[in-house]
Amino acid sequence: MTTERRRIDEENRQRIAEMSPEEIEEERRELLSSLDPSLIQRLLGRATIEEGVQPEKKIQPDVTKPRKTVKFAEVKDEPAGANVEVTAQDENGTSTKQNEHNHPGHEAAAEVALPTDSTIHFPRPPQPPSLDPSDPNFLEDLHEKYFPDLPADPEKLEWMTSSPSNAYSVSQTSLDPNEIRFAFTGALIPPSLAAEIPVTMGLHHHGNAPDAAGYTIPELAMLARSSVPAQRCVAFQTLGRVLYRLGKGEFGDPGEEGQGTEGAKDTLGELARGLWFEVKKESVLEICLAESEGRGAAGGRHMGAKAYATEAVWLWQQGGGRRWKAE
Known about the structure:
Layout: H1 3-18, H2 21-34, H3 37-50, E1 68-72, E2 83-90, E3 95-101, H4 104-111, H5 138-146, E4 181-182, E5 188-189, H6 191-194, H7 217-224, H8 229-247, H9 267-281, H10 284-292, H11 303-318
Antiparallel strand pairs: 1-2, 2-3, 4-5
Helix pairs in contact: 7-8, 8-11, 10-11
């Protein structure tokens, strides 16, 4: 106890010692009548704990219910349909008897055994052959195996087929101007190099020759009309560089308007005239000018495409700004 509690306790004990037994009993009755009985019990329990006396715990009587046990009487060769007597006895010795009817159908069901013959055969539908991507009939087998209930549409799967071996290859004896392919820098890609450029360069696409790298002038003109701004940006950037190289005579001198070919020495001139013919036929200059003036596919709202188209027009002018009319 603290000093204050000890002092109060001594004062209380001294005051009680000065009181007579009648006064103590009267004060006790008055105190008990003014307090809640549950509060008095808690205070008394706390007082015993503080004095080192553990409160008594109430001992619950052990009430255990008697357990029942079941015993079956032995049955000796009971005929079918006979009653089987079952005796149930609990721990107090009380016995109860129950009758069970023996059904002959139960014995018959127990005697029936499952078939153990392993020759049971479940029919399976015919399986299509395994798929081989190198097989010429790969697309037909793919459709038959995974989509047999859907109508076949071979045109939608043409992009998955390999292009002919002679598409833009060195085995060709001649090429049309609309088949000539260019890199993003505007440089011409010869057939011998188109097959060696890896796909990581981004020059392969689903065009007329998917296995060959590069873009033709008709393909670039088509992308320049696309509703996708990124495709238009690539097209204008590449077309501007092609026009610059074409105007500078890198692909040959086309000569004057209407000038014809003069033998084998004019091969580069013939190439240049063919490329100018494709530029005119695909309206490349008109598309670039329209986009740069805000009259393009999106009405000039895409600033990136407009900037690349303006650059293409500027490169065309730097290359000479020539409008060669091929005939």
